[in-house]
Design goal:
1 helix; two-stranded antiparallel ribbon; 2 domains; alpha+beta
Length: 93
Amino acid sequence: MQNLEGITLNVGHNATNFAPRINLMQHAELPLAVFESAAVFATSVVEELSVPYQTKAWQLVLIRYTSNAAGEDWDQGLWANDLSWNLIGTYPI
């Protein structure tokens, strides 16, 4: 993640043994490309919505998107006409 432009990992709590994590993601074994895509998507949303620079996040929302048309392969970048989602959990930040 530290190779992505605009991502800073040097926050105050990194000097300790504190390791923030989402328990559901701990064993997901997702490739780095998933997180890189999420960072690019979040950046685009922030830019398109003109979110002010000094904005504070208060909640992390974990959502699982599903599509029978897309199946398990989401790498093609095509629109899925049957997209649905389930709220997995919310976490205060």
